[in-house]
Amino acid sequence: MEFPTPKTEITGAPSEGSGDAMQRPRPYEHASRDPRALRILAKTIYREMRQGGLAEEDVMSVAGELLSLVAGDMKDRRENGEPSSIPPSPARKLR
Predict the structure, then answer these.
(1) Is the dihedral of CA 31, 11, 3, 72 positive or negative?
(2) How many Å apart are CA 95 and CA 86, to the nearest integer?
(3) Contacts from 13-22 at CB under 8 Å and sequence distance 24+?
(4) pLDDT band at residue 13 using 50, 70 and 90 as cut-offs
(5) Which of 59-63, 75-79, 87-91 is predicted with the least confidence, judged by mean pLDDT?
(6) Is the dihedral of CA 6, 39, 91, 58 positive or negative?
(7) What per-residue confidence (pLDDT) applies to 6?
């Protein structure tokens, strides 16, 4: 499985710990408002992980870790009185 190179090589953006997070480019900013784009992104990530040799259980573990990270960020923002970093997406039908 190939993993992307660090952000500094791709975008010239500073690493996680340096600089202001609001100054960094956000390549998925518009996708966050487009349910179709998010679905395509999810399918792409899933296919890459499976083709890279991860079993279904491994993919589920990765998904769980991602959810934990997001939940932790949201909790931290709520406790600090900070607004959400991305506006909520419009309501969509679940299949």
Answers:
(1) negative
(2) 24
(3) none
(4) very low
(5) 87-91
(6) negative
(7) 47
Q: Give the whole-number percent of the chain exceeding pLDDT 90.
A: 43
What is the spatial distance between Cα 72 and Cα 78, in angstroms, rounded to a whole number? Answer: 10
At 13, list the tokens.
């953006």
Q: Quick check: 37 and 30 in contact, CB under 8 A?
A: yes
Task: Give the residue among 62, 31, 64 at the shortest CA–CA distance from 46.
Answer: 62
Evaluate whether 69 touches 61 at the Cβ level (below 8 Å). Answer: no
**Identity at 60, one-letter amino acid code:** M
Rg (C-alpha) for the chain, rounded Å, is: 16
Counts for the chain of helices (H) and strands (E), in that order: 3, 0
Q: Please tell me the distance from the alpha carbon of residue 62 to that of residue 68, in angstroms, as a whole number.
A: 10
Q: Which two tokens stand for residue 28?
A: 């998925």
For residue 7, count other CB atoms closer than 10 A to its CB.
Answer: 15
